Write the structure tokens for this entry.
Amino acid sequence: MKLSKKDFLSIRDFSKEELRTILDLSRKQKPLAKAFKLEPSHPGRVLACIFHKPSLRTRISFEISIRQLGGSSLYITDKEIGIGNREAPKDVGAVLSRYVDGIMIRTFDQEMIETLAANATVPVINGLTDLLHPCQVMGDIMTIEEHLESIEGKKVVFVGDGNNVARSWLNAASRFPFKFVLNSPSGYQLEDSYVEEVKKDENLDYEWIEDPAEAVRDADVIYSDVWASMGQESEKEKRLKIFRPYQINDKLMELAGRDAIFMHCLPAHRGEEVSDSVIDSKRSVVYDEAENRLHIQRAIIALLMPTDREL
């Protein structure tokens, strides 16, 4: 099945069936890749990886993904391009399309990615923006289904700031039938305008709950992230005080479902948003979800980027 869009910028850009295609391919490829038996379906293809924000998981997983498909990658920092400053995003998209077969970008501004994609003739993949983190959540769904069989009918509770990961979880809830709960202090929830826009989609089961104990009760998944993301460093001390009651610890985990799992997109600030006892427990699947970034992104690349047989 071919995807309806050239680019992977947001989960909401795709239907449930298309997202299932990505998940199915990632599950099919995973054991083959781990056994070094994956067919190099994209030999000679080049993926440009543009980074305005540092990353462990995003860089390594994308570079390995394209190599496992038989291609290669280019690591490009903002110093080389100066996108949005030295070079207009539309020019970068047009020029890079003459050199490479796909572009992944991890940056701040969602509009910049959308402009880049609109002017590129090759696929553009959102590796993260301040607005969204779609590849992360797709890998998370893959991980949940490995441990809990299906995302459908589950209760996923995101404890923390209404950030880019939370928005992508909201988008996923508009495509798959599960309940998404954001648990955050008042003033740190998802923007009403964004929620109202997503509510236009079918099947959205979303709730904001301020009290942590109420929010996590009977949860199947408890999800955490840092309280101050990149670009919010000046707010860190203020946020530490406000979010302290929202730490995921043993007491809070006990209120969740008996088989509930703990997730975190990493990097984690141990002792802040999550205790060592939780992140290192048997209920924690943080390293599984980190690995699955590789497998889900490889499937996304494989479905977006043409093979020799399609040229």
About this structure: The chain has two domains: 11-133+291-310, 134-287. The first strand starts at residue 46 and ends at 51. The two ends are 17 Å apart (CA to CA).
